Structures are given as C-alpha cells and as structure tokens.
# Entry
Amino acid sequence: MADGTVSFLLQKLQKFASREWNLQENIRNGVHDLQIEMQSIEALMKDADAKKDHDHRIKVWIQEVRIQAHAIEDVLDLFRLQEDQESTWHHLKMRHPISNLIQDINTRLATIKKTKESYQSMASTSSSTAETNVPLIISDGGDNIVGIDEPKRKLVSWAMEPNQKLKVLFVVGMPGSGKTTLARCVFDTVKEHFHFHAWIIASKSRTRSEILRSLLVKLGCPISGNLLEELGCPTDGSDLDNLMQTLKNFLQHKRRERYVIIVDDLWAKDVWDSIKHSLPDVNNSSRIIITTRRGDIANSCREDDSIDIHKLQPLSMMSAEQLFNKIAFRRSGECPSALKEVSKSILQKCEGLPLGIIEMGRLLSSKSATTYEWKKIHDSLESELKNGGGLSNTMKVLSGSYKDLPYHLKYCFSYMSIFPENNPVKRRRLIRLWIAEGFVKEERGKTLEEVGEEYLNELVGRSLIKAHEMDFDERPFTVGVHALLHRIILSVSHEENFCTTVCAEGVEGNLAGKPRRLSVQTGNFDLSQDLTCVRTFFCLSSGKVSIGPNFRLLKVLDIQGTPLGNFPSAITDLVLLKYLSLRNTSIRKIPKSLGNLRQLETLDLKQTLVKKLPKSVLKLAKLRHLLVYSYNMVSTVSFDSIQGFSVSTNIGAMKNLQKLSFVRAKRQHRMIQELKNLTQLRKLGIVELAKEDGSNLCQSIKMMSNLLSLDVTSLNKSEPLELDSMANNPPRFLQRLYLKGSLQTFPKWVSSLHDLVRIRLKWSSLSGDNPIEALQDLPNLMELQLLDAYTGPQLDFEATKFQKLKILDLEQLKQLRFIVMEDYTLPSLQKLIIRQCNELEQVPVGIHNLHHLKELLLCDMPEIFVAQLRENGGGLRHLLRHISIIHSYQQDRSMEDLS
# Structure
C-alpha cells in the first residue's frame, strides 16, 4: 500500500499548491520539488510492485518512503494549523519555520534518490517471481465434499433443462468458498449429456489469447492445418481476433451439437467478452458455467435472461463441523467432547468458508489433541496466516483479491481493520469516514457520497466486504468482512502502519512508530502520551475517554457510545477536524467555540441530549452532514418518537450541507424560508411544522433540486400538514418520503414521483382520498407503510398494480374490515405486516396468489383473527401454505409461530 500513501500525498500536494497560491517563494519552490520527487518515487514503487520485487531491501526502502510521505503530510497539516490558529502553532514549540521543514525533507528525499540506482540494479538483476495461483482443493478426498448437495442439484437442473437458448451461469463467491469444487461436481455429472465439453482456467496470470487457445484445444479444434482451411478460419492462430474468429467458425460448423464449457476463476470482464463474442448465435441448448470471485463483473455481464448468477453461500454450522471433523480427526471423524468448545470457537472464525475449514482441520490434525494446543492456534491466527505459517495457503488465496485492488480501494478496504472482528459498520458511516480521510476522489457530476457508495459496491462485488444487513432497496445497511480476511487486513494494516489497535489482548501494531490511526477497543488505555502523529482516533469501547492537547493534528474523531456527560472542551482546539461523532453519548450542550472547527464536514450528534446548536455553527462552511436528533426508544410508534434540534435562522449560510435532520420548525418562519439556500441537500428532516408554515417549506423544497429524502412531521396529530404548494414543481429525484401528521387531502404531486422507492404515511387520517389509488402506479415503489393513514373500510389492490412493492405495512387502520388483492397485483411482495387493525375480519382476499410472499407478521391482532390461521382448526390456514414465516406478536412481547 506504500504506492497508495505516495499517491494520496501527491493529491494533497497538488491541492495545497493550487489553494495556497500566495505562498512565499521558497515554500512554493520547496513544495514543487517535493511533488516532482514523489512522482518519481511513485513510478519506481509501482514498477517494483509490477515486477513482484518484494525482498527485504526493497521493503526497507519502501518503509523509508512511507515515513517521508507522512513527514510531508505533517508539514502540510502544520501549515494549515498555523494558518487557522496562530496560538496553537506556538503551543507546538516548533523550532523551524515551514520552509526549513520542507528543506529538511527534500534533503532526506535526496538520500532516498541516491538509493534509486542501486534499487534499479536490484530490480533488473533480481528474478521477478510470477504470481502463481494456489490450487483450491476444498475437499479431502471425494467422500469429504459436504454441503453442496442442494446447489449441485440446482445447477445440474439448470444445465439439463430443455431450453434451446445458449445459457450462461456465473457462480460467485469469495475465494475459497467452493466455486471450483461445485463447478467440477456439476461438470462431471452433466458432461456426458453434451456432444463435447471443455474446462479452462481463466486466472489473472493468463492472457486472453492463451485462454482462447486453451479453449480451442479442449474443444478439439486444431489451431493450424487443413481442417482450419475447410472451416474458413485464419491459419495464423497467434492473433486474438483470429482466435476469436476460429472459435466462432468451429462452433458454427458444429451448430447441431451441444457443448458445455466451464470457465474457472474469471478475473477480468474482457476475457469473458472475448469468449462471448466468439460464440455463434445458434439455439442448441449449450451451457457455460463461469466461476469468479468478482461479483461486480458477473453483474455487469448480466445483459438478459440468458445469463444467471448463483451466489455461493457459506456452509451451515452442521456441514462445517462435518467437514472439519473428517479432516481434523481422520480416524474417527468425531470431535472429542473435551475439544468441542474450542473446536466450535475455531469454526466460528471460519464462518462457513470451506477453504478455511479444511486448512484449519489439516493444521490441527498435526497438533496434539489437547485444549491447550488448540487454543494456542485459536489465539494466534494472524501469525499462522503469514508466510510459513500453518495457514499460509489460506493467506495466499484470500490476499489475491486484496492485491488486485487499485490503491484507493486498498485504503478503503484496510479501513475495516479499525473495527473489531464481527462488528458490522453502517454503510453511511463508513462512506462518510472514507470521505473525511480523503480516500474518495472527486468525479464530475457526482457527490463524494455517491462515489463512495460506488467504491463500497465494488468491494462487495469483489467478495471482500460482505453485507450483514440489507436495506429494503437491496443496498447494504451494515457491512463487515470475513473473520479470516479481517486477520489478514489487520496484519497488513500493522505492517504498513495504517492503524494501531489497542484491544483487551494488548497493542496490535506499533505505538512507538508514530501511528496515523489509533483504534482503542478497551477501556484500559492511557491517552496522556504524545499522540500528535495520530490523524484518526476511534474509541470503540465503553471506557472513559479524555481528549487532550496531544491530538492537535486530528482529522477524524469517533468516540460514539462512550460515557460522556459533557462536551470535551479540547475538541474545539482540533481545528483540522473533518469528522466528529459523539453519537450515543449523554452530552447536552455544544459550546460556541465549535465554530473553530472550520474544516468540519460531518457532525454526528445523533442519540444525544442536544436540543440546540449555537449560532457559531454557521461558521462551519464545509459541513456536509449535520445529524442532531434522538429517538424515543420506549416507543418508536409514538407521534413524538423523534426529538429534533433548534438552529439559527440563518441556516441558509451552510450551503454545502448534504444531510440535515431533524430541525425543529416551531415558530421558525424565517429559518424555514432560509432553507431555500440549501440547494445541495440530499436529505431533509423537519419536525414540529405548523400548518401556516407548510407553504413556505414547499417553496424552499422547490429549490432543492437534488433532494432524495424528505421527512416532515407536524406539530401534533391534529395539526394538518399543508404541502399542496409543491404541486407544480416537486423534487423529481425524491426516493424516500415520510409524512407524519393529518392530511386533509392526499398531495397530488406524490403520484408523479417516478423515483420514489419508499413512502411512510403516519396519522394522515385520510377519509376521502384513498392512498392506494394514488400510489399504485408508481413504477419503483418498494415499501409502503400506512399507520392510521386511512379511515375507509376497505383497501383494494387492483390487478397489475404495485409491480415492485416488496414490503407492505398496514398499522392502526381502525375502520378497515377487508383487504382485496386482485390477480396479478403485488407480484413482488415479500413481506406483509398487519398491526392493530382490530376490525379486519380476515387475511387479504387473494393472498394465496402472492407467490413471492415470504413473511406474514401479525402484531396485536385479535384472537379471533389469529385463530383462523392456526395449523389445527384454522379455517383460512390453507391460504398461507406458500408463506414460510408466519408470526403473531402480542403487546406482552410474546410471539406465536404459526409457520
């Protein structure tokens, strides 16, 4: 990652030089020299990486480059500190002005420069070792292939179905998940039913020409000779285009014969493109299976219904134990009772990954079968994964995906080392942190948040980051990494001085080596030592934290969930801070000196006791995310479940805001008008809105052309929401709409929101207007909640309507007696919630036709309603046979499983 350190530094140097145009000449010339020298070093490092030159001398040289890169970053930060807060500069007692510091670094770089010639000599004389693929053998003999019966049956059925079209299936999974093993089992089962077949390896080290040539040979097509001439193929098989044409002509010649091809370990989309464009358009029921760790490539290739994707799932704990025991205990195949507890703990680290299970089993089979010996392995996974360790084969396989990343994604992925193992991180939080760190590059026409989300999607697609919880719109809500991958990035992080971790087991990393990022995961840590080198500080424990003058150059401070009662005064001296999270603390008041933090981009005070921000917050011109609200955790269904905050009437001065929630609007007429200046807003949350302010709010929202999410709550249940003034110009990109409060009429403009994916209407009490009729034609709507939103006796879901709706939530519809779902309505519905609809006589008419419905959740429904659905004696139970989860909850929190 050292080339990434240099690349990020070059970006900062460029920004610094362009921003500080009035620099003294000696400083400007020094910065220019730094840029030139670091560009040269960056090119040299990338060349070394391409040639796989990573012997000890090179590693020492790279470490020195990294140290100097960090020193340059320090100088840039110190300059900014001097510029923003002169008094702080004197506090640091610097002995040299900026120009002298730059000169010192240039002198040290000159020494590094002298090393170039010897380095280049080393690079030219050393033999570069080509990267080799580690064979993925995830079964120890044929009898030990476990846990793939169901996916094998599914894939064999797919391959053998009587469909004339050429069909393609991508088998996607993280390295070592058993893709090749599954494909081999399917291939061996079905190949005899095809006229000819081929298995080719498309690994990263092979060129497209080599892969196509291999495919031609495996299919029995000669690459030269008389047969090629008969087929009308080029006789020169060395050129990629010629090979593609040869393959196409060969398959066209055999168009009446079926073939099955396995493309194993696909790394690049252009390889598949070369094969795809070589296939003739003939309907002969041929099949192609492609295994890849790159889910992003599979998704990009899914052009029509002839291409499917099968995502390989981790082994269940039962299958994992079966596989592990056969390898670790070869004679008996059974785990001794004394080792069951530690064995289970070790398997939990493997998280159902076959490669990890098998390698772990092999390692432990060579050890003494004692609890002590096995616990040593459990506690030393990181060292076992390194070269020469018992799990080094696992390391080679898993680290291949990491090494393939561009440098900016390596940094984003390495950021997961900051968080403890098995500690999911919220998607939005992670992206905001990446932005604060400078990992996310600006792209024309996109916000930094949008680019960051693309980075995350690519890391998920590459099977490096995994989604823990999925949001309703199929985006990750929380993410994490596999436990073994986590150990690998911890090792890389410590080696690269990316992050030092302080946990219960001790310090992982080098505190003496000037760590740039510090993650404290235990309360027993002394923060009084010199930590001016730290740029990012996390406290992920419940211990007390004391922020003092030793964090002067801090840019990211995340101490959410710590037992803070008062705002730490030292924070307002951290003038370089870009990200500040005090979420889930007990602080009540924010000092006026918060305005010192002119670089701040994210201020997260969610779930604190803060109800008002000082006027000085208006000085935070770079602020993008202002989150100041708390939920009533006793009852999230109550009208006042969200507590907002009061802000200055001049809020319009904060023109870079992307997210603002939740602002109290009570008696804030001018503030509501000022909102019109926040034209960059993507999310707006308003509470305590009076009827008379509705029109002004609408006028302000009209100016927010990029608004994606709008959440508005009235003063109280009986206070109407007056939002009709947006009829002529609603926010056309709006995706999420939350309205809480009485609606005299349903806002007609909502029906025109083409991009709307979620709408929640609460306490609307509509009588004349039926919200179902108003929303049924929205083409992208995926979630609908109606809570005391309609007073009519019946809801009708017409045929062919709500094509994409996945979640339907009906609550407290007090007059509702019938729900009718016509044929072909709600074809995508997966989850239906019915809560406190006490007059409802039965489950929806037509529910048996909702073939994708997986969950039916009943909450506080009358006993007479629930009785109809029970397995024994329920008169309507037969209508629910296709629903896998049926639960009934009552106010005492008891749950009855009706599945």
